[in-house]
Specification:
The structure is a homotetramer.
Chain A (H helix, E strand, L loop, with lengths): L4 E2 L4 E6 L5 E7 L9 H11 L16 E3 L3 E2 L2 E2 L4 E6 L9 H5 L7 H8 L15 H17 L3 E9 L2 E2 L20 H16 L6 E8 L13 H10 L4 E6 L10 H4 L3 E3 L5 E3 L7 E2 L2 E2 L4 E7 L9 E4 L5 E4 L10 H22 L5 H8 L4
Antiparallel strand pairs in A: 1-2, 2-3, 3-7, 4-7, 5-6, 8-9, 8-10, 10-16, 11-16, 12-13, 14-15, 17-18
Helix pairs in contact in A: 1-4, 1-8, 4-8, 6-8
Chain lengths: 369, 369, 369, 369
């Protein structure tokens, strides 16, 4: 299926390996006339960057995005926007261990099963670096959405057993800690927890949450391309995500219908408005005008320094302990990827839905407009 | 996006409304030479049927599938397989309530927001009857998979707070109770629970689980079209599903890396095999040869007889209580839909992956074969 | 590639075999709010019908279209429109000849090569009856276009060596003769020619021409999905079409640049307008506001009563003469199919192009609209 | 429709503008295990290069292709192959004329109509340089096909009124003249003709022909994705192509059925073989095992030094004469683009068709293989 393309109208194609010449993305279908510059991209890419955090890879990545096409005189032209990040560190290295042994929790074994061999350098295409292209494309989508008054924000909801306290929730607080957690106390607690995890040569997982505000009602297609279904695919396609929930999610399965249904009332302007939002902003796969809320459960980093059982390509059992710089937790760096994927999904569905009504075709193609 | 098509190689397009002339599906891309008859389809459709269960709509649906094309002399020809079910009960009725009031938990409001108006008869396109086409198509996909030694089975894992006990798990038991629950004791308990729910004019949700056995390693595309991502979309596209988990799912977010990673050992034939299956049979988005396991959390039936707050199309607040025959729980009837969607997803990815290796092209197109 | 679907936004999926239970189409992505009834479909289907013409199959087809979904209270709902025509004549018959011998000029041999066997009844899926679904879908697209002031008209330009004379061209005249030729004198001449062809047990080909008026400038995508490229695929996908030309077509290859270029002048309103239309209404793959003009060259009917050399499935040489009712020329019945495919192509590109500018997104999703 | 992607299985996405930072392509879906290096790409790109020909742009392009991903240790990995060519000459220039006036025969006017503004530097995205990405991708497809014994070759059939003589046809001769014409005498005559055209400040068109040998019977989908329909789209999507013909093409419209049908005989091995090839290797949209033959009619270069009437963006009539280095004819440089597009089309359909038979699925996924 040539699965490196996402979206049908706002179509994103990523390429690149962890330790190849570079990574990049082509965004096809971006509307013309959007102000866009490399700074818009870089800003988002930098949120993927480990920075000084001790819970993120110490390696100085310094990924610099270059826009190669599709932007002219500061605005998008409607033609493909190619963006790329060259890998600065490609020096030959000893990948011996990874090359021959299947790392538990990684895609080494399955790439071999699928393709017959693989680019083993740093995980190749299954590396977390693959998300660079997603984030660069997401930056463009986020900019389009912002112009339309739609805002997407993801943050860390929990790290291992430490979850934020809804009473203390403060969105701006996420910028004040290394974990992008909008609760200062929980962030501090999670940092301690992570130090212990690292001391034990182990790793942790967590949950990212994302909220989309300002999305008009009516976005999403009613059957297979439901907004929540498309978001689920987008988010589950991020490596390490093991579960997706919208609105009350799993808890809805235990609730009574009377508690789970969101009644309607009138807003100030005499329009229908949901009283509660258990549904997470989506009814029948279509946005209902309230905030869209979803979560992604992320597994612990598979690369750990503890010894694990494994086997080699040529069929010998062998233990492996993965040393080197690895984040003890993926969640904080995944947050911006979740945000990017959400933006790509919503924008793609908005573009696809522009022909939903005859009246809308007339607004674009009608003689009177 | 014209969202009534699922799949790219094994492409399924459904149509039809709850109370229109009928519902159906076109399956395009089915390999030629598969033995197929209407009985194969009917068998699966009957599992959607309420039957004598008191927890399912008493209305006698009696949906009968007709194959209209694509099968000749008992075998598929490789051309589109059109299947349809005519609605037997289309008599004019009083939909007054539904027509004007937005039912909480339903898609009435969002259809109006998207299209400007809607077919209000029994929910129209957002009715559960839309899944008839999915199940008919799924029956074809399941048959292809079975021919290749791949078996898909979904069942009820929990109803409200009552979950099956893994110690008592017995897959065959699912055929012995109305809830398709592979644990006789839990099923009995759940039935009592549902009677209470009904007495309270309320409804319940639950969790469906699905297991795919026999799937070879190597199925799924590494980036956006990961096997788990595609399954997530397929399953979240079923109305009422609010969460999707693969393998340990949400629990993985709280586990330590050392506990969550599945080590490798050798199987009897000297081949790599995972020791455990926390991953749910998928690594890096590609099947790893162990059983694929995932779950869908399903919300309580939104149609309840209790009074709820709502508003009318023309902007008046009004209470609504939904009478008539409605299942107090959707899960048992959704189980076969989950199974169908899983089969469609897996087969589509298998077809898409046939060109993954030059060696495989040679097997089909090479002169020596 | 599961090739029975056309279009990405206005997505049409056809099904059905010549002598199976029926043929049909699902149209997904039609905007909501279009007035539509079965009469709209039937009108176009009847133009495919042989009627009393002696140059068309005498068999009384009487194809009656039924709309099964997607229309409610006389308007499209935005959900899939399923339409079908049941075959009235399915009685078992002697297909012996066709079953075993590969008819020259037909797809018998290639279907066997691709699928391993085929539905040999009347050509199965490769029959001209497959176009029923195209025409029904085209009727919907034509209606959408008409609402936007865009008109598509195809007609017979030549039959064998007899071409219409541009000086005598009169579009309305096409309704007065059996060949849909907008030139009474040429039509008469062509009828005589065809009588001779029939007397010789042979067949003839010809050229269909199509003109699209009222299409605004700006439709079509600049690289692979050029308007002319998409029209070419649409038209070449009609069985028996062997060449496609846009504007001056083949003649452009012999012209000088100075003669082939269309200069610009100002129209009455001070807007740019092409002085000539050698380009056929398309520049760089995008409509330029003048009439879009293209032609399809159609081969002679392959079914002829003359004896031809052939071989059987099991590898024996054998002569074949095809008796029965076969049109001596396909062009007149293909004209409406060309019209349908043109409408499907143009509408699909118009829907896809709605997101070409930020300004257009604001018109649909902006708060001020 | 975000039209910069071609193909569904072997999916090619091009990007880049004539005078931007560069141009490139991402090839997704290439089978793993194909030997590939930059030399393979460069070889084909060099055929696009003007070289020393006086009939091609004198500008020294020196386009150098870089492979950025998807190839490891000399073989494709199955992941996206990104290739790019940096523009060496981006210095600021006076594009004043082009910026404000709509060049006749160019896409200036239609880009403005579609997007509201355009990158006017050297034609931007509508420049012939856009084909660099197509040719690079085509080089990969051609390599895959060659491994399977399938060979694609395009050449110049005619320039203006000078056509090659079938009696003198010698394929190898195409490498001996600047026009890629497999007939030395015709090439010489065409060169004289072009010198006259240049002296008159005018330009010429011509016809490219392409032959595909070794393609097995059974490639192509029977309805919308017919092999000839897909080739037509591929070829008509090349700028300046105004007509497409397969086999006898337009001539078939004038032929009698008895002359146009290709009878069958047995080949040496007792297999069915067509006696003639009027059909051009395709029956019912599916390859029939004989050589696939098609032609593209290419219009004269629109950039000419003669004065032409035009208008400016702000609505003033103004004459324009285009000076600078422009090829008097596009055909010789387009030949390799036709070859590339043919390869992309055929390979994509071959990959899509791998699931046509249950037997073929078993060859890949069956336990016994």
């Amino acid at each position: 299926m040539a699965g490196s393309t996402f979206g049908s109208q706002f179509r994103v194609t990523t390429w690149g390996e962890s330790h190849g010449k570079g990574l990049g993305v082509v965004v096809d279908g971006c509307p013309a006339g959007l102000p866009l510059c490399e700074e818009d991209i870089q800003k988002l890419l930098d949120r993927r960057k480990p920075g000084g955090s001790k819970f993120a890879t110490q390696r100085r990545e310094g990924d610099v995005a270059e826009i190669l096409s599709g932007v002219f005189e500061g605005k998008t032209t409607g033609t493909p926007i190619a963006m790329e990040v060259r890998n600065t560190d490609q020096r030959s290295r000893d990948y011996g261990g990874i090359k021959e042994i299947y790392r538990p929790g990684h895609a080494d074994f399955t790439f071999d099963a699928k393709y017959g061999f693989r680019d083993y350098r740093g995980g190749g295409r299954s590396s977390g670096r693959e998300t660079l292209g997603r984030v660069a494309a997401g930056a463009v989508a986020l900019k389009v959405l912002e112009e339309l008054g739609i805002f997407v924000r993801a943050y860390t909801k929990s790290i291992g057993p430490i979850a934020l306290d809804p009473e203390r929730f403060d969105l701006e607080e996420m910028w004040n800690n290394r974990l992008y957690m909008p609760d200062a106390a929980a962030a501090k607690e999670a940092e301690s927890f992570l130090e212990n995890v690292m001391a034990e040569k182990d790793s942790a997982g967590g949950v990212a949450e994302c909220v989309i505000r300002g999305l008009p009602a009516g976005v999403g297609e009613p059957v297979f391309d439901k907004l929540d279904a498309c978001l689920a695919k987008a988010v589950m396609s991020i490596g390490a995500v093991k579960a997706f929930e919208v609105g009350d999610g799993l808890a809805a399965a235990k609730a009574a219908g009377s508690a789970n249904n969101d009644g309607f009332c009138l807003d100030g302007q005499g329009k229908a408005k949901k009283i509660t939002n258990h549904a997470g902003g989506i009814l029948g796969g279509i946005s209902d005008g309230s905030a869209v809320v979803f979560r992604a459960a992320i597994k612990p980093t598979p690369s750990i320094a503890l010894r694990q059982r494994s086997v080699t390509r040529d069929g010998k059992e062998k233990e492996i302990a993965i040393h080197g710089r690895h984040d003890p937790v993926i969640v904080p760096r995944a947050v911006v990827v979740v945000e990017a994927m959400a933006a790509l999904t919503v924008l793609d569905l908005m573009l696809a839905g522009m022909g939903s009504r005859m009246e809308w075709l007339r607004r674009i193609y009608g003689k009177e407009y």
